[in-house]
Amino acid sequence: MCVPSIAIQRYRELRAAGLSRSAIRRAVATGELHHLRRGVYASADACAEVMIAATHGGALACVSAARHWGLWVLDEPGDVHVWLHHDGHRRHADDPCTCIEHWDEGTRDAFALPSAARVLRQILACAGVEAFFVALESARRAGIVGPAALRWLTSHIGDEGREAVALSRDDADSGLESLLRWRLRHHGLTVRTQVRIASVGVVDVLIGERLIVETDGKANHDSPSLRHKDLLRDAHAALWGYVTLRFDYAMIVHEWELVESAILASVASGHHLVPGR
Fold it and tell me: What is the pLDDT of residue 7?
């Protein structure tokens, strides 16, 4: 994770900090500073995407900004999202350029990162409500957005976004859990996350009283030892009368119809209920 807002400095800011013209030239020559374009410099530890955004005349935006904060995002890293502000000026280094521009209102500082609430609004407009909900729950869990930011966000988005805010929580442990809860929201199910079960441990999702849904992330369950641990958990869950469904990242994100059908079939069979009730 990097901090884009302090990685970029203008020439006049470097001079105001006490650096002479020759000192700035030496810093560029030694790699302490990167000269991005006329009058704009980056610190030596600046992220590549931060420098791309600054070269284009702005700061990271949308999913690019969220990813650099360590928030959950649904898409894979790709073209950089750049916040140019409503009164900014694009300065493309490449022709044709593949950056994704955001022109919503902003501050006077072209390189200042959007607020977390504004980043979430950009995600909603650019990537859709599912990506918004996943990033929102991640931001809430990380403590990046508080009550004031949520109020601002709610007043600056439409009905679908407000539904997502109302459903969001601050205890989701992964983006897959968030996505699953969002996609199941209209089925009238009781869906709880991060539930502790005796002899099993904390499970990702519990539907009703007895149906466990485990959401296996990309890199967390691949090794033989972790796979064995998962099987032990599932066996212990079965001993206590639970039914476990286990889905990986690709299934939840890309084969949702199959995942949804499997969950609803299990619910139709009563696997989410305590026998006899």
Answer: 82
Domain count, the chain: 3
Query: Would residue 59 count as lying in a domain?
Result: yes
Asked if residue 179 belongs to a domain, the reply is yes
125 inside domain? yes
Contacts of residue 142, Cβ cutoff 8 Å, sequence gap at least 6: 69, 70, 71
Residue identified by tokens 């930011």 is: 149
Same domain, 224 and 248: yes
Q: Report d(CA 97, CA 159) in Å as an integer.
A: 34
The helix/strand/coil state of 120 is helix
Q: CB-based contacts of 101: which residues, under 8 Å, 6+ apart?
A: 82, 84, 90
pLDDT digits (tens, 9 = 90+) for 145-199: 999 999 999 999 999 999 999 999 998 889 999 999 999 999 999 999 999 999 8
Do the domain assignments include residue 274?
no
Domain range for 14 is 4-114
d(CA 168, CA 136): 7
| Residue positions counted in the chain | 277
- The residues, ordered by sequence, that sit 6+ positions from 222 with a Cβ below 8 Å of its Cβ are none
Same domain, 11 and 103: yes
* pLDDT greater at residue 107 or residue 53: 53
The structure's pTM equals 0.86
